[in-house]
Fold these 2 entries.
Entry 1:
Amino acid sequence: MPKATLKSASKATLRPAAQPKNRSYTPSLPLEIIEIILSHIPRSYCSQPTLHACTLVSRAWYSASVARLYEKPIIIGKNYDLFVRSVCPSINANIRKNGLAELVRTLDLSRLVHHGSKSLTARLLGRVKIGIEVFVAPQASFGINALSALAKCSRLRRLDMSLVSVAFSTSELAHSLRKLTNLDTLLFPRAGNENHERLSSCWPECLKTCIITGGLMSRYYTSYQSPTDPGCTFPKRRPHNLTRLTIGNCDKLRPLDIESIIFNLPNLDHLEIKAPMSQLQETPMEYHFLSLANFRHLKIPVNYISPSIFRCGTLHPHPDGPGKSFVLDTLELDCVEPRGSRAEQIDVDTIWDAVAEGALTNLRRLKLHRKFIPSSIPEVIADATALDQLLKTLASEDGEKGRFKEEDAGVWIFGE
């Protein structure tokens, strides 16, 4: 054997054997099992650190938990800056896109008061525009520049602007809202002094639910016209898909204004009027407004309606002629203090007459505030029990054609 070979062989025999390294081994779970584990983590502000810790376990855990972490983040003042730096970092930082903005589906900024700025909100909307479906605007940091970014959120289904303190004109809102072709729920801003007739320019095509709170002016301060008068003009644009409408905190709207809004909603099914509405406290809604649209569900404080609604067909003629009845089948009567003398004229006995032989023969479910049924008066309790049996009997006679089963009909009590 050559000499060099012997030397190298002797050196090789003198070397210690390599010791195996003690490597920690993390067992891998199927992705389906990881998703089941993550589904048991509640969606709350306190659980977000838990989801963040799950993203640090392994690649599999990261891919399964990062989507849940950013899909519906709970944002408050403490973590807002960290969220913004993760989703839309500064351009000057030369940080490449990480794809986290595309994971956001719900962006709720309602808990922010003085955090951020209007330009930062617009930039944030520009980053999450690909996948966002629900957006709740902040109170102070939402401006006109955010409307342009909002118009590009093509997948947006629900838009809540009820907290926005900036007053936008209807033309500015219409320019952005009419581009949101998938929007089905809209809460209008509370600020503004626009005529309610200009709302027609803001209706998106697929809008189904609309909530209007404050900021609307009456068009009948100088001219009093009924929506059914020939000389009364209405916008040509009518939202045919809108089925639910809520109007509240509009102190400048009068009964004729509400009637004109209802008249332009041919498929309206659910109408809710919420307090305060000072004009309705003075001049209530009369019986003929029920015939302007075929809505089946009405929720309104008893202070805002006239007793003539329950006497239509007996003391007052029905707008569509004798023998006709309103399609209303669900009525919720709330109570606003002070009730006043007009509310005292509406009692259980009056509603009984309207259901039995009046214009509310289609009524099947009645929800009353507890103040309508004082426990100290046995006669009132007996009348409410009899009315409950009447509504259940009528629902049973409707059979399969009716909207309510016998156990779902009757008189329901709420409030304290």
Entry 2:
Amino acid sequence: MKRMYDEGTDSGTSISPAHFALLVICGFLTGLGANAGLASAVNSTAKSFPEWARATTVSLVFSGLGLSAFLYSTVTNILFPGDTSAFLLLLALTTSVSALVALLVVRPVPLPPIRLDLRNDGHGGREHIPRGRTTPFTVVPDIDTVSVTEGDSRTPLLGVRPEYGSSSEGTRSRSKPDNSPDIHGSMLWSTPDFYLVCTIMSLCIMYINNVGSISLALFAESNPNYDEIEASKWQAAQVSTLSVGNFAGRLLIGLISDLMRNQFRLPRACCLCIVSSLFVVSQALAIEISSVSKLWVATALLGVAYGGLFGALPTIVIDWFGLAHLSENWGYVTLAPLIGGNVFSIMLGRDLDAHAPREVTDLFPGIKPVSLERQCLMGRECYVTSLRITLMVCMVALALSTWATIRDGRRRPEGGR
């Protein structure tokens, strides 16, 4: 991609079909590599930490992705201001080298085996092995004989302690000691909860993909002294604000998720209600804001919500569908924004085009900036209709998040255990 950028176009006005096809392939490979690396990192992290700390650690890994836009833009502005070619080279080298290094050093760390001790409870009773669980045992001299009644699945033991070991049944118990689900493949596609998660994920993506166009429309509103460089600075500021909010949201939602699960015994899906509420508030603020200098408030709030959404969902996917096939299931879930993101982006694009002036000279007498020939210059009127629609859509996402929380609570009848 850097080489194509450096060479430019053959005719000076457009690129050839071959170059365009190559650019599409490069973009596809970029997305493929980014998602493969992220899925591998999340999978390794989730399998290396216990359930009570999983949301925090996974969201910590995701937070780096949220901050990447801010870091790259800052480094580029300091080291290579205005040099797009150097920026593309920096991206190519740092992303590939970091992935290669991770390939050599990142490995899942096996969790310690879970032991179910058989000890005297002080009242003559014993702790028994749960019904239906078959595990190997190791001899422990200081434990008395366990008396067991006839007719159930418990087995009399003489000085033994159950331990998850290496036999076939033991391996099965070790991988799912708490009877966690294992839903994947065709079974996943027939599960209503999968479509519930995907729908929530696809409904709140429009603003983040088009914040640059929104900031440009506000900046250009009735401004006869339009400066393209100044406009690009406002766009960059919105992207940086969004990136920092994204980072904060991913980091905070993991802490909140673990706190709600461990301290208050609430389902992790409650986090979806928090995130959806932030989306609703951010869209409402964006509708009312008419100055580009105040747009950062809505952008920051939406960044936190967007980061919270992607930070909360991995552990919800684990709780609902299991850990064994996390990379596969998470890959399917992340396809959801393809639908919502493109539909709402097209909707906003049509809205901008409908309000774009046919002749720029009507608004800028004697001046015709090339970059504004198809740019809407009417401020919030350019996009407010689309934002009203996405506000209603985010309210639907909030309702679905509430329903997801109810469903999650029903499958955990013992107070979160």
